[in-house]
Amino acid sequence: MAFGSTFGRNTTSTTSTSLGSLQDLQNDVEVPAVGDDSISDLAFSPVAEFLATANWDGKVRIYEINVMNNMTGVVTPTTVNGRAMYTSGGPVLSCRFSTDGTKIVSGGADKEVKLFDLASQQAQTIGQHTDTVKAVRYVQCGPQNTQCVVSGSWDRTVKYWDMRQPNPICTLNMPERVYTMDSSQKLLVVGTAQRHVEIINLDSPDKIFRSTMSPLKLQTRSIGCYPKGDGFAIGSIEGRCGIQYIDKTRQNQYGFSFKCQRQQKTSPKQSIIYSVNSIVFHPVYGTFATAGSDGSFCFWDKDSRHRLRSFPSLNATIPVANFNRNGGLFAYALSYDWSKGYQYHTQNYTNKIRIHACKDEDVKPRGKKK
Question: 32-56 as b/e, with b when 16 or more CB fall inside 10 Å?
Fold first, then answer.
């Protein structure tokens, strides 16, 4: 199926091949003991089959995923076992593995950036903000590719940490509270309140490369950077996703936006709009997934402007999803995303993490349109 009529050309009707079913998800493996509150982030190790999860209960949990390769080359998860856990002083909103897979960084409502060493099982505070830490990433900065941690906060700053001293390497002031952040290669993109987007070239991490506004009309919810580091996709609370390129010529030629995370009502002109909570890119193919408050996730090919595969709603909001290091596994959380306020966060609300084995036909690009 084409992305839709939002870009005004190359549209087609829905085809059955793009529609997945609940039966396609029946073999997804459930992660055990995911915590007592909402799941806020999922991160895979870049070197092994480990998964880290951030939770509103103040804990980061690390799991090992056992996999099996079948005759068609599909990597299938078999069992998931808990391996480690550490605690913060408040809800944890973000977590990521280090590039060598030996450490995990996290941040949250206790305003601290924490580093956990898997070998020693010890956690330490490596950074501090004056308000909630919304997002953390491992990045490589400067011409020497110096590894450091970057954190974005509601205190309207982005800070870089070298993990060996309590003071930041440098601080960048943001125009508003940081709502989302992602990086790839030498690209760091920060989305803030009031739809501001700050683009940073990590060869010069101490300054803003470009300040712009979201191409979408309503509040920014998620950002995912392309694996090549040449652009990013941005999602909003209005059920819309924007495809953006850093190079302005490429943006004029290839940039567009499209509708997603929506449920059609009886009338063809009416639909229920949901937040796009998560945008993540396949590390090999460069295709991507969106997931949101409608309880569904979809795989897309931005270059051919096609929806590769969509799955029906699982009757619980999806706050976050992610691909593993080779794109063979796709983890998604079924957990309350707070989109309707605290009164909807009931004790019997679904709180799960599932791991889906990706088929090539669902995530492999289909070639550019001419």
Answer: eebbebbbbbbbbbbeebbbbbbbb
Q: pTM of the predicted model, to two decimals?
A: 0.93
The conformation of residue 165, written as its DSSP 8-state character, comes to: S
Mind listing the pLDDT tens digit of every residue in the chain (370 residues)? 444 434 333 333 334 458 888 999 999 999 999 998 999 999 999 999 999 999 999 999 999 999 887 766 677 888 999 999 999 999 999 999 999 999 999 999 999 999 999 999 999 999 999 999 999 999 999 999 999 999 999 999 999 999 878 899 999 999 999 999 999 999 999 999 999 999 999 999 999 999 999 999 999 999 999 999 999 999 999 999 999 999 999 999 999 999 999 887 766 677 889 999 999 999 999 999 999 999 999 999 999 999 999 999 999 999 999 999 999 999 999 998 888 777 777 778 899 999 999 999 999 998 765 4
Element (H, E) at 362: helix 360-363
DSSP helix/strand/coil, 194: helix
| Interatomic CA distance for residues 219 and 201, integer angstroms | 24
Tell which residue, 90, 124, 125, 127, has the closest CA to residue 109. 90
Whether 300 and 257 have beta carbons less than 8 Å apart is answered as no
Both tokens assigned to 327: 């794109």
State the Cα angle at 250 between 246 and 253, rounded to 5°.
140
